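pipeline/complex-builder :: batch 7 item 3
reading input block
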Amino acid sequence: MGHMFSLEGITNSIQNWLNSTFNSTWALLFEFVLVGLCAIGLFATLGLILVLMERRVAAFMQIRLGPNRVGPKGMFQSLADTIKLIMKEGLTPDGADKFLFNLAPYVAMIVAMLLLAPIAFAKGFQIWDINIGVLYISAISSISVIGILMAGWASNNKYSLLGAMRSGAQIVSYELSAGMAVLSIIVLTGSLKISDIVASQADGWWIFKGHIPAIISFVIFIIAVTAETNRAPFDLAEAESELTAGFHTEYSGMKFALFFLAEYINIFIVCAIGATLFFGGWMPLHIGHWESFNHIMDYIPSSVWFFGKTFFLIFLIMWFRWTFPRLRVDQLLNLEWKYLLPISMFNLLLMTLVAIMGWHF
Amino acid sequence: MFEEIGTTAEGDLVINMGPQHPATHGVLHLLITLNGETIKKVEPHLGYIHRSIEKMCESLTYRQFIYVTSRMDYLSAHINNHCCALCVEKGLQIEIPSRAQVIRILVDELTRIASHELWWGAMAMDLGAFTPFFYAFRERETINDIMEETSGARLTMNYIVPGGVMADIHPNFQKRVKSFIQLFKSKVDEYDELVTGNVIFQGRMKGVGVLSKEDAISYGCTGPAARGSGVNCDIRKLYPYEIYNTLEFDEILETAGDSFARYMVRIREMKQSIRIIEQLIDNIPEGDFQAKTKAVLKLPKGEFYQRVETARGELGVYIISEGGTTPYRIKFRSPGFSNLSALDHIARAGKIGDLVATMGTLDLVIPDIDR
């Protein structure tokens, strides 16, 4: 396609060089290490950027300035915060289950890092293009609730316990409609592989091609993932005014920071999945057979498309947080089991019909 | 005093909410018995910010003790001062110049708006919406600036003194209040758009924390908390002081008795306060801002009681005088204490989230409860 700034060339040349210099086992090992370093680097960078973005967005909505002292326009604020958090003492409360208490933040972090693997950040920039990509994501993201439950239980604190129980009920429930929404796009693509899903949108994004069912499932998806990532208006697991800080009340220093980072990485991941499924991932805006238009769009690098879409969705989720009040726990579960789940089931049927009859574009 | 903290014999969870907790807005300590998320009992424990203001007042002169009362309900400091000044004036039978009366009502109503603004922001924050807090403070700052210009202080103004007010209003006062009215009128609609009409907000407020009219009366609730249940209790209407009887304003009543009714009472009350200010701001009479009083005030032997309507309800001050320069005994009837007493009754069988919402709509100021 003659992409400018395509990362495929870089990744291929690294692989070729490794294979020509070392034998295949060592080359693979080096690739693993490289990929791992990339993932950690991405994890940290994204975390820092998202925290800063959240604070700036919040400040923008709350008629104030936000961080603007550390570095130009406050850009290094999150870096300064990280240094502060590293220097703080990581307390383990008396009576806590020490092993689980210290394990929980790592579970949350590892889950978030594992989820980075199948995401296509740009054309040819994907860590692991597994053929069950979407299934892998839903499977791994279910583990994150274990980290939260672990933290709540091991803290030996009633607020933490309440927060963890809320979170458990919430994540398990909302995973269903998130899964249903994802499935309705899978019905159209016929593949769980991320690269196939992206490729299937070369002539238009599913949100436009998939008729009304695609829009419905996008709305359900956004609601469900907001709940799944414990973000306001579904932040019952933290619920500052009710449970002080919910499941991470007892955590301090870097252990707290890991939960915090994992939360933001999870937001990034769900938004990236949303962008991939509904907005074509790194695929530029293509419209049917408008060849010249499509060609012009190709000049915008694929990574810009991907991050643009993802950050738009992230902004949407941040916008929710700084606008809406919080739901009550019974209202939260009612919303899922009485409204979202039946609608998304019906929507899935409708989408199947659309796919079978070929009504989509 | 405290039960054993932990789990009860029935296996219910007992948790301490406060004295350090974001939702109790101060140092209120609630001992909550929970069955899962459902509240079985709420037991408020007081005394964390008790400064024995009533006892302190006994050793302060009639001019001095008014300053201490600003520290009770710090959000309606003017109105507390006003109540005490009225009581002392009643004992001394001083005629207040009409200019002072009008100024007093103006600052009272401005204080009421400022207090309701803060309550509005804090209550939205209790429900998990952070942004309204900043919007509320934006307008509240304007009032604080006006107060600062006139009285020199932003929170505990000590502006109202026996005999009138401490100093004349600042030359800018009228101009700035008028511009505030213009600003505020557009902002109230913005509040409604942002919070009142929100589906989640209404779901959290409607039918939650229902206080019936009978219960409101028997718990001694006053102010917006009782008017949300349909109890006529606006002191400005029932026992008018200063020139409230000559002013046109409505006593806001809602009948539902739930959190949303209490919320709406306060929102509508802000608009009534604006109405009162509009009637007076161009009609401040010329004259003295303070009556001529003796340097040392001595109340005659006897008992004096005065009540006013603060932003939270009925504040009463009861002075027993032995004829000296200091009161023999002072008792304050604070609105927050009675309103808090109804909390256990209305929060039972609700969820933790409901408790927070209910507490928010009762608009508790802890230093007012503890004194």
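note: The beta strands of chain B are 13-17, 29-35, 38-45, 160-161, 164-165, 302-309, 314-321, 329-333.
queue -> next item
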